[in-house]
Structure formats: structure tokens, C-alpha cells
Amino acid sequence: MLRALCFSLLLGCSAPPPPPPAPVVVKKAKRPDPPPPAPPRSPLFVLGWTEHLSDKTPNPTTLCAIEGALFVCGTGRVVRLEGDDLIHDDALEGGLLRDESGALHGSIHAMLGRYPDDAWLVMKSGLNIGTEALYRRAGSQWTLAKKWKIESVTGSLEHLHWKPGKVAVLANSLAGNDKSTVEVVTKAGAAPMPALPAAGACPQWLRYPSLGVAKDGSLVLTGTRCDGDTPAWLRLAPGKAAEKRDGTPDFAAAPPAEYAIVSSNLVRRTADGSTEEIPLPPPPVADASTLVPFQVIMRSKNDYVVAARFKKERMTGVAILRTTPAKNPAKL
Length: 332
Description:
single chain; Methylamine Dehydrogenase, Chain H; five-stranded mixed beta sheet; four-stranded antiparallel beta sheet; 4% helix; elongated
């Protein structure tokens, strides 16, 4: 009995059994995020590019396509697409006015006509006030055809290749207070068109006119009537008073373009009417922004040239792209 009591006391005085061990939680290693998909490959290649400081406002770099050739305008050199490359050759600049440093006296503002037998070049100096010079290609040289002095920031000139050997020039006032004038420049010189009609208190019947060529080949000015802001136009002819018409003239319909710029994207229009976005290559300058297209020129089917802007800090530029790679892509 005593032995049973001691055993009972031993049981009562012993420590409680230890708790069961905590379950072991095994953490699974986190899988790395998949890499981002590679951007689609662009069918375009950089032919060349221009750069300038953002706080400067030179003539913008654009593509100037005329019959028989494609030029890059907005630079201080004559640059033409030849084969697979944009080339600058001193022979392309023979006859153009130069400054004391030997550089061209201005930048290439526009190209007109047909290269090389009926090509015209417009050179512009100064940002707002300066000169504009119209040159005609004669053999292997440029010949000065007419020069204008721009003395007001509200003045502007518009040039249009009207007929073989003829360029129409509209001197316009952006202020709308002065009369516009039109002249036709040929190999023999410049001949003014008859004065544009006035309208009561308005200095001229047609406000803010713009040059054009109607479907029948006649030279026209389009704009709005000064006395009513309705569309109107004038038919011009040497030695005859301008014919006033309401509405818009009949222009030759341009064929639908397969490639176009839509909402700052280069797109291709398919046969079913939908559009397919064409990716652009990386910018030609390291750490620059992505390219934003603003102009496309069709040369032939599946051969097109694109101008696209980019930025880097205080610098902006324009890249010229094409469907075939250049042998020597470089800064223009």
C-alpha cells in the first residue's frame, strides 16, 4: 500500500508531457518574372539623321520628293537619295550662293519640278526675316531665277511648280491686311499676274489664299471670301482678270496611299480597309526618345521613305528611314 502511494505521488509531482513539435513550413522559391517580349522587328533602316538644339528654330528637316529624285530639305547642304544612301556632293551645289565661310547662304527650303531637266530649288536664310532665293537647274549648275527680301514676320512666300519651266510664286500676308500678289517665274524672268480683286472694305476678295493647280491645268488660288468666310477660289491666267468662283475647284484625285501617318503612327492600309501598324527602328542616337513618324513618301511598291522625329535632352532631330539598309548611314 505504501509502495502504491509513493507511485501515485510520483505521478502527481512529475512535469506535464512536452507539446508536439510545430509543423515545418516549407516556403517555395518565387519564380522570376518572365522577360518582357522583344519589340517587333522593324522593316525600316536609318539612312541618316539631323540634329539641332531645341531652343533654335531652323527650317524643319523634311523629305522633298520631286519627279525623278528625292531630296532632304531643311539642311544647309543639298542632300539627295542615290541608290541606297543619302549623299552630299559638292557638284549638287554648283551655282548656289555661299557666305564668307564657304557654307551655303541659307538652308534648302523646297525642291520643285522634275530632276534634272526642270528642277527648281528654294533657299531660305534667316529664321523669320531674311531672304528667299529661287534657283533653276541649268545643266550641272543652279542659276538664280529670283530673289525676295522678307522684311516682316507676317509675310510668307509659297512656291508651286505650275507647268514645265514655270513656277508660280504667291507673296502672302499672314496678317490679312495687305494684298497678296502672284507672279510666274520662268527661264526668261518673272512676270506678275493681274492684281487680285478687292471686295468693298476688304483689301482683297479672297482671304489667306493658297496656290493650286486645277484638274484642267489652270492656276488657282483657294481660300475663303472676305465678306462671308465661305469657301471660294480664283482662276488665274496671264493678262486676264482673275475669275471669281464660290466653292472649291476640281482637283485631280490623288491615288490612295498604301502607307500613311495616322495618330503619329506609320500604318499600312490593307485591301480589306483595315490598317496595320509598322514598327520603327531604334533612334540613331543613344539614349534618345523613340522615333515618331511625321512624313512618308512612296517611291514604288514596297519601297517607301519615312521621316521621324526624336529628342535627347536639349537636342531634337529627324531620322530618315527606308526599307533597304544604307551602306553608310551618318549624320547629315
